[in-house]
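user: can you give me the structure for this one chain? tokens are fine.
assistant: on it. calling the predictor now.
[tool input]
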Amino acid sequence: MAHIVLEGFSQEQGEFLPAGPSVVEGIVNGTPVRALCGKVWVPGRDPRKYPLCPTCREIAEQMGWSVPSA
């Protein structure tokens, strides 16, 4: 499954706050990342080749985020 990773968010003043390691950092440094569904893993494969985790999709949609259909 492909998962959605929250890499951070911007505050009202525009300051970016990281939520944890980014996917790129995980790939380059072998650092584990955490998906919205709670899964922790070291990314290394092309997520476009896998279906989106239904739990990650549900959480993202509940937060009002635009989630690709395929």
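assistant: here you go. Residues 8-62 form one domain. The first strand starts at residue 8 and ends at 10.
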